[in-house]
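User: Hi! I have a protein structure encoded as tokens and I'd like to know what sequence might fold into it. I'm fairly new to this, so please keep things simple.
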């Protein structure tokens, strides 16, 4: 009965389409994106701060808001957040936590190719269904070898094979329980390991569901998987089951349940070898990283990747105009990064006089790329959850963040104190410091020697934001609140309403922007969560 009353009340409420044309067209309900960005007689480009989204009718709960969205043609994320491929933002710790929360991290390329591939491998190994290449030890190795390996890799359980390698005959396993009370570092593993007869094992061909049940029933920490010759072919860990339970939104591949991970490369010839190493490490998406993506160098690299590594999605960019996007889509890009010169540590617009205000860039590129089914990533200029919501309402599939994530525990680098404030280093990839570590190729695309480096970024510091375990849920909830206030149930619906001219915006004057922030106080303390 109550449902019928609710439906009756809903039917009686006036809808946006019921408002008379004069009111609707007068600007009283705001303006369509076409009126703001296309019929733009003043020829002005807009930033996120320049626009505001008009509120809509709320007929659903906050928990009903779905923020899942597309990263590329083939990859959908449960949360539309991507960590930037910057050397003070994303290495394996950041990428792991982003994927566990439902987003994805892009490992930066200011590393040797082998080291970058190793970072990707750490992400892919962190949360496996089947661990297909576990670290093994030999019965003749010693406790000293165990402790050294444990310290180097950060985990303490190892299968023991007769050869000390994957594929050898399984003879036992060791864990913390086996090593805790051994004092002699020279004692051999065969003297204290849990032997083969005491182990619960699964046979090759077992499904992940069956293997997980065996692990739960046996109450053991590890489940070795062996073939008919009793040779080790895989390993399953109980901790992975716990991580599956604790992180239901985690971004995983559908085959091995490994965390999704991306990595960036440049456009120089040696980056082709880097891409192959990343592919061997299991990378899911490659970002071709250039400050200005519409170049023959990037077009050639995208074409090479699509031809030689067809199973890996390619995100190209950066672009800010439809014509730039057109060339990269034509080359085969599966996604586009949008943004040029708008990051907090970027000086490209100041130094090179080229770029575009981000709200305008996101709207125009996303609208064009949509014709070809290519999602866009709004890269840069994100300073708050409101900016994320605006980017999604302007057509972006995901947002890429640098400074927003740089101060977290998972970002590379150590905390330090300045004037009593806990900080972390953060630098643009166009800064001279970052260029000295290899990021120059992001701004100089060919191999020509450049005697003079022109900085397009700065180095600085950002305040401590704590762990992503708390920070990402805050960002998620902020975006849900924003979409709910706009009367939008999902990111897909936001795009649909944008292009159906049902989503309305207004341009804010400088005074309106001031009014929309904290004002009129002698002092205040701003806490995020």
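Assistant: Happy to help. Inverse folding works backwards from shape to sequence: for each of the 529 positions I chose a residue that suits the local structure. Here it is:
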């Amino acid at each position: 009965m109550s449902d019928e009353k609710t439906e009756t009340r809903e039917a009686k409420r006036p809808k946006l389409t019921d408002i008379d044309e004069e009111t609707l067209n007068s600007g009283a309900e705001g303006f369509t994106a076409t009126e703001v960005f296309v019929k733009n007689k003043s020829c002005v480009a807009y930033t996120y701060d320049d626009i505001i989204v008009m509120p809509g009718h709320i007929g659903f709960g906050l928990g009903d808001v779905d923020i899942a969205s597309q990263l590329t043609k083939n990859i959908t994320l449960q949360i539309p957040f991507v960590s930037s491929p910057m050397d003070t933002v994303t290495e394996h710790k950041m990428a792991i936590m982003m994927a566990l929360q439902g987003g994805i991290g892009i490992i930066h390329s200011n590393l040797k190719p082998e080291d970058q591939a190793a970072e990707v491998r750490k992400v892919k190994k962190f949360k496996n269904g089947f661990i297909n290449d576990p670290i093994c030890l030999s019965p003749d190795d010693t406790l000293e070898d165990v402790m050294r390996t444990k310290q180097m890799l950060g985990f303490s359980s190892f299968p023991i094979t007769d050869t000390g390698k994957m594929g050898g005959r399984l003879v036992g396993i060791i864990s913390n329980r086996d090593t805790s009370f051994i004092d002699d570092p020279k004692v051999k593993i065969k003297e204290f390991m849990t032997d083969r007869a005491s182990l619960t094992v699964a046979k090759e061909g077992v499904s992940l569901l069956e293997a997980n049940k065996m692990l739960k029933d046996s109450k053991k920490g590890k489940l070795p998987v062996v073939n008919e010759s009793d040779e080790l072919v895989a390993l399953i860990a109980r901790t992975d089951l716990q991580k599956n339970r604790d992180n239901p939104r985690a971004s995983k591949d559908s085959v091995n349940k490994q965390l999704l991970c991306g990595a960036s490369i440049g456009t120089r010839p040696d980056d082709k070898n880097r891409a192959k190493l990343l592919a061997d490490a299991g990378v899911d998406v490659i970002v071709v990283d250039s400050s200005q993506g519409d170049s023959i160098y990037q077009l050639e690299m995208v074409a090479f990747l699509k031809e030689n590594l067809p199973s890996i999605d390619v995100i190209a960019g950066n672009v800010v105009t439809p014509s730039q996007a057109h060339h990269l889509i034509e080359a085969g890009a599966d996604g586009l990064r949008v943004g040029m010169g708008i990051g907090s540590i970027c000086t490209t617009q100041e130094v090179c006089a080229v770029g575009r205000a981000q709200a305008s860039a996101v709207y125009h590129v996303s609208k064009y790329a949509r014709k070809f089914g290519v999602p866009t990533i709004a890269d840069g200029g994100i300073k708050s959850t409101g900016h994320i919501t605006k980017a999604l309402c302007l057509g972006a599939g995901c947002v890429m963040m640098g400074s927003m994530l740089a101060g977290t525990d998972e970002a590379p680098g150590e905390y330090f104190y300045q004037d009593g404030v806990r900080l972390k280093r953060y630098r643009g990839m166009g800064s001279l410091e970052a260029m000295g570590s290899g990021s120059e190729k992001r701004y100089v695309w060919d191999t020509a020697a450049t005697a003079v480096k022109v900085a397009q970024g700065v180095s600085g510091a950002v305040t401590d934001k704590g762990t992503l375990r708390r920070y990402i849920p805050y960002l998620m909830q902020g975006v849900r609140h924003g979409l709910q206030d706009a009367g939008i149930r999902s990111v897909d619906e936001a795009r649909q309403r944008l292009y159906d001219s049902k989503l309305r915006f207004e341009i804010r004057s400088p005074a309106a922007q001031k009014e929309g922030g904290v004002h009129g106080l002698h002092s205040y303390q701003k806490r995020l969560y």
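A useful reference point when you look it over: DSSP finds 20 helices and 21 strands in the chain. Feel free to ask if any position seems puzzling.
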